[in-house]
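Need a sequence for this fold. Nothing fancy.
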């Protein structure tokens, strides 16, 4: 993880770097720093903790200390070394002439460190990054050219990186390079930018150049040069950036998470627009390149993802198997990559990722591509690495999601999965009432979501009542089992309460031993084939004095007594219900965390994009 920014131009660099880092805080927030070039001298300022600490530190400096039109900045999510000031970036070489910021991991840093120490380098930090600073400085001493030095140095590295590098002898240039970590160049007028992600620069420019793996860029105020790894000149095209700066504002909500939950009805409308019009017409997915012949030949589907996206994949298993009859396996990317997996040209591999940057998913997708599988990526970031690796693409179009806890992107992933399943069925000439029902439910889903969102007071009261509990169990069966997992994940990550999702039928095989009056059990009950079964599991929990919370579209009078609290939601067909039920769980987690005073948008130890394995 980590976020990096670079600026060279005519404006005050420190303002632009800090503003950029604020928009990258979702990538890490345990320390930060900037390096500013002025009059052939580089000043480095760093602080432990949240970015505000760096801002406060910079306020203590005189104008002349921080006056500069060129600099690099970094926000860190620690991998090697504690999150303290020494380990914060920028990292410098021994003479202080070269400084750099890094996102990624240098896997062979230990052997390089030993080699550099033998040559007299003195290491100050515990980071892998400092190795790169010394290494590039060594190459610079030989070549006296920063592009050559960076190119020679990265050839000696193993791992993943995006670097922005400055050297005092090249006071007008920032040199940048990347491999398996994101980095883009923002193209301005008399100024240019570097950033890990679009939000850092979107205020200043709508034009960007994406670097390919191994390419090196030299940017100055009026010039951008890009070199291939063999140092030939590259001609990457300038692309138009998709975001509006407004999307980065909280728009009056206390947290981005709450704003993003409230955006869900529009997210659903957006994604359905141009794709599904009524219950009868065919749907259109322009970037899904699977032909009828290819779909007919698919023998299995594998879904690979992490975290919330993995939960969307689990819903996908129920939906795709039910509608297409093709067997579906779902696996965490981090598990998929270290075993002999079976995939071939008759396998459809679906990678799901909000960010399109998740390292484990990227590695898994690269592996299956080599085996000849058709790769379909479902992502919120059309320009991401995963999108670029895809044969077919489903852009979920949820708009930028800032809060570390994924909410609107999850609903958008679910909708994409329904669309894909229907698309495959229609291509195979499968026509069922279930498909019509799903289309109908999708079209009216936004108004049902609005009904929940416009009446949050009960969810808020329930949240307050249960906020002091230390453990939670979420249960459901069938297609809402992944909803239970997702509800538990939301609660864990933003409130730090221990919460676990179980298939309700599994309760009696072990977890029931934990039930007593200190253990709230949240049950998701949707009228459908497993409703009565889950109700029986609720009876079992009630008999063990557990506090029972129901999230249901119906509870008959004789069962109401089982529940300490219940939240009723609009009626919806079981197969589409995960997209509605999860909203209640997102709000419950949000209000509990808010009530406990937690840092909702930036929970401890987490980062939004996990770009390290
Ligand atoms: O960007 P991705 O969807 O690939 O990210 C996967 C997970 O890191 C992500 O869903 C994570 O679990 C979120 N914090 C969940 O809220």
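Here you go.
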């Amino acid at each position: 993880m980590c976020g990096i920014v670079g600026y060279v131009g005519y404006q005050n660099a420190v303002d632009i770097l800090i503003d950029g880092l604020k928009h990258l805080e979702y990538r890490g927030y345990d320390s930060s720093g900037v390096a500013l070039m002025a009059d052939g001298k580089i000043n480095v300022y760093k602080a432990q903790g949240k970015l505000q600490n760096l801002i406060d530190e910079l306020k203590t400096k005189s104008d002349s200390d921080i006056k500069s039109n060129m600099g690099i900045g970094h926000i860190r999510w620690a991998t090697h070394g504690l999150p303290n000031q020494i380990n914060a970036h920028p990292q410098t070489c021994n003479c202080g002439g070269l400084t750099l910021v890094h996102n990624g991991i240098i896997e062979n840093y230990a052997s390089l460190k030993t080699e550099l120490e033998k040559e007299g380098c003195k290491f100050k930090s515990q980071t892998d990054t400092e190795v790169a600073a010394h290494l590039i400085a060594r190459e610079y001493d030989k070549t006296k050219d920063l592009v050559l030095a960076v190119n020679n140095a990265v050839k000696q590295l193993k791992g993943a990186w995006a670097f922005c590098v400055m050297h005092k002898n090249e006071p007008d240039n920032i040199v940048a390079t990347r491999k398996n970590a994101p980095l883009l160049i923002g193209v301005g007028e008399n100024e240019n930018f570097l950033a890990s992600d679009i939000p850092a620069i979107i205020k200043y420019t709508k034009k960007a150049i994406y670097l390919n793996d191994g390419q090196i860029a030299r940017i100055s105020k009026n010039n951008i040069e890009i070199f291939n790894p063999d140092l030939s000149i590259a001609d990457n095209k300038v692309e138009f950036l998709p975001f509006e700066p407004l999307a980065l504002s909280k728009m009056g909500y206390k947290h981005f998470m709450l704003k993003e939950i409230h955006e869900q009805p529009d997210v659903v409308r957006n994604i359905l627009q141009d794709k599904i019009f009524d219950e009868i017409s065919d749907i259109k997915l322009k970037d899904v390149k699977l032909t009828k012949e290819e779909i007919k030949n698919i023998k299995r589907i594998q879904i690979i993802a992490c975290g919330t996206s993995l939960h969307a994949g689990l819903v996908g298993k129920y939906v795709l198997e039910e509608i297409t009859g093709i067997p579906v396996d779902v696996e965490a990317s981090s598990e998929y990559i270290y075993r002999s997996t079976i995939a071939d040209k008759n396998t459809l591999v679906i990678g799901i990722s909000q960010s399109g940057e998740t390292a484990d998913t990227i590695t898994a997708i690269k592996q299956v591509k080599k085996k000849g599988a058709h790769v379909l990526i479902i992502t919120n970031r059309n320009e991401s690495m995963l999108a670029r690796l895809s044969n077919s693409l489903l852009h979920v179009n949820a708009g930028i999601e800032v809060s570390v806890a994924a909410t609107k992107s999850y609903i958008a992933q679910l909708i994409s999965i329904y669309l894909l399943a229907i698309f495959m069925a229609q291509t195979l000439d499968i026509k069922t009432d279930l498909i019509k029902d799903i289309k109908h439910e999708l079209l009216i889903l936004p108004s049902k979501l609005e009904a929940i969102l416009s009446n949050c007071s009960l969810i808020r009261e329930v949240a307050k009542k249960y906020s002091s509990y230390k453990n939670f169990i979420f249960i459901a069966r069938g297609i809402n089992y992944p909803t239970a997992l997702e509800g538990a994940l939301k609660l864990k990550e933003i409130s730090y309460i221990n919460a676990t999702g179980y298939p309700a039928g599994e309760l009696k095989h072990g977890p029931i031993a934990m039930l007593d009056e200190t253990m709230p059990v949240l049950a998701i009950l949707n009228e459908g084939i497993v409703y009565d079964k889950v109700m029986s599991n609720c009876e079992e929990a009630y008999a063990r004095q557990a506090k029972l919370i129901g999230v249901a579209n119906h509870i008959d009078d004789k069962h109401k007594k089982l529940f300490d609290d219940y939240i009723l939601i609009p009626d919806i067909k079981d197969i589409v219900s995960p997209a509605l039920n999860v909203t209640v769980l997102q709000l419950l987690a949000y209000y509990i965390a808010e009530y406990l005073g937690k840092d909702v948008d930036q929970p401890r130890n987490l980062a939004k994009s996990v770009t390290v394995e």
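For context: The chain has three domains: 3-247, 252-453, 457-595.
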